[in-house]
Every structure is written in structure tokens, then in C-alpha cells.
Amino acid sequence: MRYKGTLIIAATTLLGLSLAACGHGSIVNPPHGKVTVAPVTTSSSTTSSQASFNNNTITTSDLQIKILSMQIVKPGVSTNNKSLLRVGFAMTNKTNKQLKPDMIKQYLNVYQKIDNDNQKLNTGITLHKDKQLVAQQNNNISKNNSTDGVITFVLKNTVNPVELVAKEHNQQIGSQTIQLGQLPRISNLNPTSALTTDTTSSNETNDTTTVAQHATASNTTTIQQ
């Protein structure tokens, strides 16, 4: 009887060991009876954990875009009687990749809420004063260098606030709400015209400090745009 009991215990022990060895590939060297689970490594091909939009600055692993100024362009014949939001910025290339200021459209969208509908704004015309600057925005920025740029967006109105949404690989990395009421207003005057004189230059000294006064930052991540 003792012999049979010993055989039963031995068989039970072997069965338990064989079951423990099956279907538990994640268990690694259990020390002193504690189960250690192998760590799981995940990777993302969309946004970088370093990507952000803070203090008027979009930061990714490749570049930095600092918003320098914002003005409202008054409606006129040259703007198709539409008001525009003019955004001036500086783009810095942090890598050896080919980056150019014209790529701002891949990293910044602007929305305006109309009747509870958050509508994406279309890009607008190039202002007369910005034509030379915009013509250079297809030039590549060398590593660790910065280049100024400008972009305009067609506003639905000049009352409702707008939301600047920064993104990387079509994933939202942050946003800022801008109150339009206190932004400087300029006209799209043609400097080559002898009949007009641009008297609005004194109103265009809107630096990042002024922008920050009218912006409410809210970091939001991995929201598909």
C-alpha cells in the first residue's frame, strides 16, 4: 500500500509539472514560487511621446514650430471679401530630414465652432506683404536652423474663437483656443500701388507674449483628426 501511494504521489507531481510547462510561454524562471511575467514591448508608428503643443510651440522629434504672431486680415476685394487669420511662425529642423516651412499644413489645423459644429478652416490667400516670404517656404531647412514662415486661414466670422490644433501623423498632440476679439487687425494692401499706403504696420507688433494672453492651452493626445 505504501508503494502504491508513493507511485500515485509521484505521478501527480509529474502531471502537475507537465501542465505547468504547457501554454505559459510568458513565465520566466519563477524564483521561489513567484511567477515572473516577461515584459511586453509595444511600439507606435503614429505620434511620438515627446510631441506636444505648449506655450505656442509645436514640438515633435523632427521639428519645432513656434507661433510668433497672429492678426486678423480685414475683408476686401483682394481677400474675396473674407476675413483671414494670419499666423506667422518660425520652423526649426532638428534632424537631417528634408523639412520646409510650407509643411506647416501637415502640423497645424484651425477650427472655428459655428452653431455647435467645429468646422475646419481652409487656408487662405497669400497677402501682398508676404509674397516674398511665401515664395521661399519651399526651401529646405538645414539641421539645427530655423526659417520664418506665414500661413492664412479663411475665418467664418471674427467673433467666434478659433482652436489651433497641432498634430503629428494625423494624430492630435495638443490644442489652443484663441479669442479673436483682441487680435490686431490689418489690411491686405498692395505696397506697389501708388494710390494706397499701408498704415497698419504699427498694429502688427504681436509677439508670442501677446499671443499667449489670448490662448488657452489644453494638451490632448491620440485624438484622431
Structural notes for this entry:
- With 225 residues, the protein is α+β, with helices and mostly antiparallel strands.
- Strand 1 (52-54) and strand 2 form a beta hairpin.
- The chain has helices at residues 2-20, 131-135, 208-213, and strands at 52-54, 57-59, 63-73, 84-93, 108-114, 117-120, 146-154, 162-168, 171-178, 185-186, 215-218, 223-224.
- The longest helix is centred in the N-terminal third of the chain and has 19 residues, at 2-20.
- The strands form two sheets. Strands 1, 2, 3, 4, 7 and 10 form a six-stranded mixed sheet that branches. Strands 5, 6, 8, 9, 11 and 12 form a six-stranded antiparallel sheet that branches.
- It contains three helices and twelve strands; from the N terminus they run H-E-E-E-E-E-E-H-E-E-E-E-H-E-E.
- The N and C termini lie far apart (74 Å).
